[in-house]
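Thread: quick sanity check before group meeting

JM: Hey all, I'm pulling together slides for Thursday and realized we never actually wrote out the predicted structure for the chain we discussed last week. Dropping the sequence here so it's in one place. If anyone has concerns about the input, flag it before I start.
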Amino acid sequence: MEAELKFTYKKGFTYFDIIESPFIANNLLQSSITSYAMRSSYFDTSDEFFRKRRAVFRLRRQNERYYLTLKLSIPKRLETGEGIFEREEFEFELQERDKNIDLGLGINPEWFLSRLNETQEKSNRDLLQILKMAENRPLSEVCLADFTRTAYVFSFRTSKFEICFDEGYLGTSEKIEQFSELEFELLLGKIEDLIALRGILLEHLPLIPMEKSKYGRAIAIADQLK
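JM (edit): ok, ran it. Output follows.
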């Protein structure tokens, strides 16, 4: 399961105001910084198969590596509030042997599950059902996000998080908008720590919780072109 916080900055504030704040700086693992270029391409059928089921099918390039991801929605916790995103996530890295895979021809469930099993990730009934329903249905890119990510590992209570500072553009090949976003993704630990962290961040730092994911904002731009 993926669990993360998403924020944007209050007007007049930037990445530096966050990373240099004592609460953040004092809890970073200093050797953990990484930076890389990312491009997320979101795919769907012509009749919006995944969108109608609140699912997201994504091909992501991270520098020169590629990852295929299927995200499924789960019921939202009543106590969490805005800015918290929880989803089932199934992801694997594409290898040289996958180079002939053509998403335009749809998904082969056996291939997807075989590659997923190699990562030791477990499938479930929801995944099996949606893959079967989507089998061999042609896919095309419906929106995208192109950005640079700077990431750190952050500790809070007994949990570890990846802090991601994302800067770039999202939308479609015809229309894009600039964005800045901050994510705290739970790597190891308790969801209760994630919820508690949200409260502290909003109280002490110039942050605004996001209502939509990158996909949610990008597909909204795509909708404007219809």
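AS: nice. Helices lie at 15-19, 22-25, 49-52, 109-118, 125-134, 191-204, 214-224. The CA atoms of residues 198 and 218 lie 24 Å apart.
JM: adding both to the slides.
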